[in-house]
Amino acid sequence: MSDLRIAVLGVGIMGADHAARLTTRISGARVAVVNDYLTDKADQIAAGIEGCRAVADPLDAIADPDVDAVVLATPGPTHEKQLLACLEHRKPVLCEKPLTTDVESALGIVKREADLGTRLIQVGFMRRFDHEYIALKSMLDTGELGRPLVLHCVHRNPAVPPNFDSAMVVRDSLVHEVDVTRFLFDEEIVSIQIIRPAANPAAPQGLADPQIAVMRTASGKHVDVELFVTTGVGYEVRTEVVAANGSAMIGLDVGLVRKSAPGTWGGQITPGFRERFGQAYDTEFQRWVDAVRDGRMVDGPTAWDGYAAAAVCEAGVVSLNSGGPVEVAMVSRDSIPGA
Ligand SMILES: NC(=O)c1ccc[n+]([C@@H]2O[C@H](COP(=O)([O-])OP(=O)(O)OC[C@H]3O[C@@H](n4cnc5c(N)ncnc54)[C@H](O)[C@@H]3O)[C@@H](O)[C@H]2O)c1
Fold it and tell me: Record's family (predicted)?
């Protein structure tokens, strides 16, 4: 079988990384087309990949007859239009999170895909492919910890870009813990509250950082998340499940521990998400390519997962402004056959 020919749309931080991943580490696929709003950037990436060309219009790139499947690594606000084009052309698509940036358009995408009667959209919640999250999930599924009761999460970044605002802490950072909660517990989140402790003096003016998210699942499990995106320290993502027969934690970042004179010990903190989740992105892409090649089209989080995450984050942003707990408004999955 010949290699899957992929179009990568948006070759910024993630897209350039994904193009390199597909070219050097993933088997059964090659990057045939790249596109970026900044055409020079696309030309430059295309020049570095054998058999790859730049296409100036994203919709032309999706429709291109030499393209079998699409990777969307463009900014969230452009996803809706580009996803609809992928559906129209029946092209499988791995869409970086978020599915779309608002609940209505996310639901519209879920319905449009369900109308086609075939799944084509996978959403890039890569933590589901990380070895540590997979181990935690399988421990919960085998029941060896007993009934899970509480999830404690920490999500810290050393710094964020200057345009990162308080709502983005919810929509861009917390969204991963929202998906992790749904993945680990296999149930929806029904309410969310965002608490704003005193702000970090080093955070840009107006940025509510840190934030504490408190979520409740449909069966009553408690989830809390410390979000702190201006620590100046490193990338720290920890997840602890407390269950009836014990607890389990991942993300301790324990690599090499050095002891040396004068009486010190310690190691290195992972600098960023690309280093921490490099293996997860590789596994995510290999499994997606394999699924598209054998006709399953999706092997991971679906459009519904993208919609559910958008609904929880929407309620989170309301709570960020009101301070109180907010119920998550979602349609029932059964109301959309095929979703
Ligand atoms: N899964 C993860 O861990 C993770 C991490 C970071 C970002 N993301 C997501 O990946 C996506 C890209 O993020 P990024 O950090 O690479 O952003 P980025 O700004 O570095 O890259 C986006 C690129 O898209 C281009 N672009 C903008 N509008 C376009 C359009 N209409 N058509 C084609 N190209 C367009 C920009 O010129 C830029 O090169 C976002 O959806 C983001 O939320 C996911």
Answer: Belongs to the Gfo/Idh/MocA family.
pLDDT in tens, 302-314: 999 999 999 999 9
Summarised one tens digit per residue, pLDDT across range 261-301 is 999 999 999 999 999 999 999 999 999 999 999 999 999 99
Across the strands, what pairs with 71? 8, 94
Q: Give the pLDDT band of residue 1 (cuts 50, 70, 90).
A: confident
- Is 51 strand, coil or helix? coil
Domain with CATH 3.30.360.10 in the chain: 128-269+309-335
User: How many angstroms is it from 15 CA to the middle of ligand 1?
Assistant: 7
Q: Which atom of ligand 1 is nearest to the CA of 10?
A: 24
CA 255–ligand 1 middle distance (angstroms): 30
CATH of domain 4-126+279-302: 3.40.50.720
* Domain 128-269+309-335: top CATH class: alpha beta
Tokens of 56: 């100036």
CA dist., res. 183 & res. 235, Å (int) = 22
Strands (E), the chain: 4-9, 29-35, 53-54, 69-72, 93-95, 121-123, 148-156, 189-195, 211-217, 222-228, 236-243, 246-250, 258-260, 264-266, 326-327
